Amino acid sequence: MRKTKPATITLEFEDNNRLPLLYGEHNAHLARIEQKTGASISPKGNILVIEGKKTARETAKQIIIGLHEKLDHGHEITMGDVDGAIRMVDFLDIPKKEKIIERKDFSKIENSIRTRNSIVSPRSINQARYIQSLRENDMTFGLGPAGTGKTFLAVAMAVAYLLEGKVDRIVLTRPAVEAGEKLGFLPGNMKEKIDPYLRPLYDSLGQLISMEQTERRMENGDIEVAPLAFMRGRTLSNAFVILDEAQNTSAMQMKMFLTRFGENCRMVICGDPSQVDLPDGTKSGLHHALNILGDINEISFIHFNADDVVRHSLVGKIVRAYDKAEK
Fold it and tell me: Quick check: pTM over 0.70?
């Protein structure tokens, strides 16, 4: 009896020098793709041979092509990028279908965000939808657990808009010290009091355009990072405005913030409705806004879940465990 040779897919690359970046150290990227798809991937010089069942082969092929596209556009490939590419193909549910579904437009490099220091690409379908919403809608709510990229992607888009001259400034804000913003008992001047609560926003900016650029642009007024209380009485025009930790606003604070909206303004509200730190009896402004704004077509609501967590995989498991316990 003659054994049938398994069907294969062969990918040939022109530039050998970049293949180590694609394959990963000791071919770690290829090993992760093999683990997740069930395909067998054999590198032979500038050729990759992919073996396995049809759906496994095609899934591995699409992941590798997507990662190679990023290299073509100057994007360094990390294990996080590999996991993101796998997660995007997982959404297409290819292993459970007989027919092969080509990668959707939202998974391509065109849906990435370019900043001075990096190219930020979506690592899940909801991240892709979020990026699309940030581009197309004047107001977007990003809702879901920590680690899903809500704030980082919003800051990345804000930086891109500033660098491209689409807005004159970026305004980043969040409630300080829970929702009451009672800073008086803390030591130091006002900046020293509020800096610890705004640090995650500084960190995102530093990663995207460097801390030196961030400080220079803050001095010039191009970037403003301030607690929510400082927004009262202002009209925010020609600006990309982001409210972080929105679940810790009161209903009045949320109304105050949303009504700052001015001409040529992009506004993003990021929060996790399940992580409210308000005192007992205080209604979350985020919950209130979701209940009353849902019928406004110009506002987009993007919901993230544990599958969108792009931090360590353990974070996603923890989120699922808590969701299960709460249900």
Answer: yes
